[in-house]
Write a structure and sequence with these properties.
The protein has about 110 residues and is α+β, with helices and mostly antiparallel strands. About 60% of the residues lie in helices and about 10% in strands. It has a single domain, classed as Orthogonal Bundle (Arc Repressor Mutant, subunit A), CATH 1.10.10.10. The chain is built from six helices and three strands. It has a three-stranded antiparallel beta sheet. Strand 2 and strand 3 form a beta hairpin. It comes from Jiangella ureilytica.
């Protein structure tokens, strides 16, 4: 993404989102901070390696904050930044659209598999 010129706002938003998992992570964090294990359980189907990669990318993009608590055992929590919350707000209507049309989308997916 560094140094890239975008053709429109949607192009820029998709570049930040980049794939399936980031949207699900944003959704999981909408109600407050979660620890790594809680996130992994909430975002079903994601591998530990992929979750680590996505969290790092999201932190670099400024979508989330990683808070490390100096205690034994160590505790790390992830939360949305204001930037991440604004993206979540922007994605909410898309999620509603997906819910409204889920049956149709699933039927199309089954036809094409």
């Amino acid at each position: 993404m560094a140094g890239r010129t975008f053709t429109c706002g949607l192009d820029a938003a998709i570049a930040v989102m980049g794939g399936k998992w980031k949207g699900l992570i944003l959704f999981a964090l909408q109600d407050g901070p979660l620890r790594f294990g809680e996130l992994r359980r909430t975002v079903g189907g994601i591998s530990e390696r992929m979750l680590i990669l996505q969290l790092r990318e999201m932190q670099t993009a400024g979508l989330l904050h990683r808070e490390v608590y100096q205690q034994v055992p160590p505790k790390v929590e992830y939360s949305l930044t204001e930037f991440g919350r604004s993206l979540n707000t922007a994605l909410a209507p898309l999620g509603t659209w997906g819910e409204d049309h889920m049956d149709r989308i699933e039927a199309i997916a089954w036809e094409n598999s």
